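Try it yourself: sequence plus zinc ion, in.
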Amino acid sequence: MTKEALVLSNDNSISEFSIDDIGDDHMFTGLETPMKADAFVMSDIEKKEKISDLFGQIMDVIGLDLTDDSLKDTPKRVAKMYMEEIFSGLNPNNKPKISLFENKYQYNQMLVEKDITFYSNCEHHFVPFTGKAHIAYVSSGKVIGLSKLNRIVQYYAKRPQVQERLTNQIAIDLKAILNTEDIAVIIDAKHLCVSSRGVKDDSSTTVTSYYSGIFKESNKIAELQNYINQ
Ligand SMILES: [Zn+2]
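Structure, out:
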């Protein structure tokens, strides 16, 4: 409990916590996913081979018989799943290509895309957290295809994550893509590391939000929440 770290809270305030507290309490250390400088030196094929080998070693250590027909291909399956599915959002090459359209209808009210289902994984325990993301924005002249909002959520969810960072990464990327400050992102998620282990609370969910631009006004937040609750 000697080292300290700066922790960015949901309201963007920064406070100090002991390093030991961070993982246990599901706090996080910054907006960017902490990546090594040489994260993409190894090819995806090499990474899959290495993960398969190392995951097999974990299975072996916990005592499983890797010659059993049911288990023998599990290391390979896990490696493929990590690289191609649940952690594919670590690689910027997998970022969805986004095209914008002119706001032909001059629609200048908030647009809300709600109940975007996502699956992510807690970076502290490597077990899933899953829930719904709700996104709202006001066009500054361009609009985005609705399915692209969904794809941006999926891209950032497919990383070892912390819910607060997921929320902020989606919001900040959308601000840049849509060239507007008027963005809101709300995420309501259930964490398996809370429900299936640890305190074993099966009913609690965690809500995080990012409001900027007009979404800092309480009447706009109320209007948005009204749409989400409909
Ligand atoms: Zn966790």
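One thing you can check immediately is this: The chain has seven helices and nine strands.
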